[in-house]
């Protein structure tokens, strides 16, 4: 069954103001072979039950609204459900939900979200390179929208599409090439499926050593400037084993190896990159400046274990959980949900309402204040797809739009008294 999501945007010249009405905390975490038992990550040094306890502590401290993870066992979804049940929805928390399981290797990604604030919309994957060969690991694409019933009733909401990637690990030209192949495929998908009303994030363990690596440049320096991702903290450079970047390093929490990698904190492998729309607050999400954090990294443990000496960046029990959970640190950032507050002048002409988000094959609307006039709808190329005369009525009017192609459309209502009201709708 096809569905359309209607997003209404009042286009006028009157003054308006934007206010932050809520805040979303986003967290990415490589959970290090969670429930993936190997010759070096054994039941004793990689205990699932112990890790679930550590994750429970970490989530209880951070209380993120969106959690993306790498390195879950590709076991058909059991690991993803266990983490949800045994870690996230504990200690009085009952509001986390997970997206659908999908994997093409022994390790998988996942996205969890706070159902009190967000709704799952759809999911996809990128599992083939540009040359149509399979990628070493698929990149997952999840789309959520913000749960604000008053906005939904008015045909509006804020969409966020999140790509979760775990790029090929290790140095060497072959691995560097595979990372580039993965992000090239992702950006091709991103460009082909780009929605000008969505917000975009890519999070993951990128395993890159420098911002000059092609796999990273594909994301931040794509030829199509409109779809580029940006580093919220603008810390480009050669991160590997460079003390100048000590405050942003995310791996390793240990100096000696085993299941974990050793070497101490000396690599920036884990990232949350944002579309420019989040950094300039043009689509309802606003990056909170200064909120990007490598949790547990106090900037004073370069090439050292996380728990060496003094580290007061987080409570002691959280620090211990971070050290024991993974050789990676989680990354977090905050985004404000912004809404445009209409001026009195705007409100006085706001007599046209698009409702029903999402709806099934119908554009449903009515006049709040009855007026005669004419309604037209055009597509993004300016082609007229609907035109009708409207008599003054407060009844609901329903138009069949099942034959419309997906995309952006513009509604114009020309009132008999000379007033004009325009809205934008997006059919998905």
Which whole number gives the mean pLDDT? 88
Q: Using the 3D structure, state the CATH architecture of the largest domain.
A: 4-Layer Sandwich
Q: How many structurally independent domains?
A: 2
The first-level CATH class of the largest domain is given as Alpha Beta
Task: Report the uncertain regions.
Answer: 1-16, 341-351
Question: Could you give the topology of this structure?
Answer:
Layout: E1 10-11, E2 16-34, H1 48-62, E3 66-73, H2 78-88, E4 96-98, E5 107-114, E6 118-128, E7 134-146, H3 149-153, E8 159-166, H4 173-192, E9 198-205, H5 214-220, E10 229-230, E11 270-275, H6 276-279, E12 285-287, E13 293-294, H7 316-325, E14 331-342, H8 344-349, E15 352-355, E16 362-367, E17 373-379, E18 384-390, E19 397-400, E20 407-415, E21 420-427
């Amino acid at each position: 069954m096809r569905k359309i999501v209607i997003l209404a945007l009042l286009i006028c010249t009157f003054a308006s103001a934007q206010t932050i009405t809520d805040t979303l905390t986003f967290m990415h975490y490589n959970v290090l072979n969670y429930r993936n038992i190997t010759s070096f990550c054994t039941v004793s040094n990689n205990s699932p039950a112990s890790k679930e306890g550590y994750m429970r502590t970490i989530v209880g401290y951070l209380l993120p609204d969106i959690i993306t993870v790498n390195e879950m066992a590709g076991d058909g979804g059991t690991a993803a459900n266990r983490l949800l049940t045994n870690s996230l929805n504990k200690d009085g928390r009952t509001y986390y939900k997970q997206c659908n399981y999908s994997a093409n290797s022994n390790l998988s990604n996942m996205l969890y979200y706070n159902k009190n604030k967000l709704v799952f919309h759809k999911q996809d994957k990128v599992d083939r390179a540009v040359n149509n060969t399979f990628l070493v690991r698929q990149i997952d694409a999840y789309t959520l929208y913000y749960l604000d019933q008053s906005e939904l009733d008015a045909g509006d909401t804020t969409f966020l599409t999140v790509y979760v990637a775990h790029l090929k690990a290790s140095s060497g030209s072959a691995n560097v090439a595979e990372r580039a192949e993965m992000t090239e495929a992702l950006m091709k998908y991103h460009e082909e499926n780009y929605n000008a009303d969505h917000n975009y994030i890519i999070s993951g363990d990128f395993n890159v050593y420098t911002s000059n690596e092609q796999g990273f440049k594909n994301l931040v320096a794509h030829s199509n400037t409109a779809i580029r991702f940006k580093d919220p903290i603008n810390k480009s450079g050669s991160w590997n084993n460079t003390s100048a970047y000590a405050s942003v390093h995310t791996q390793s929490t240990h100096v000696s190896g085993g299941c974990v990698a050793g070497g101490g904190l000396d690599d920036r492998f884990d990232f949350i990159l944002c579309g420019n729309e989040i950094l300039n607050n043009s689509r309802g999400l606003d990056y909170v400046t200064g909120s990007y954090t490598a949790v547990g990294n106090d900037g004073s443990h370069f090439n050292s274990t996380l728990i060496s000496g003094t580290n007061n960046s987080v409570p002691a029990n959280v620090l211990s959980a971070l050290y024991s959970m993974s050789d990676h640190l989680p990354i977090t950032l905050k985004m404000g949900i912004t809404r445009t507050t209409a001026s009195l002048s705007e409100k006085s002409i706001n007599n046209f309402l698009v409702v029903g988000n999402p709806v099934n094959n119908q554009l449903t609307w009515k006049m709040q204040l009855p007026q005669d006039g004419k309604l037209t709808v055009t597509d993004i190329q300016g082609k007229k797809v609907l035109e009708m005369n409207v008599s003054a009525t407060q009844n609901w009017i329903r138009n069949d739009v099942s034959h419309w192609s997906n995309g952006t459309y513009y509604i114009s209502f020309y009132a008999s008294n000379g007033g004009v009201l325009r809205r934008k709708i997006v059919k998905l």
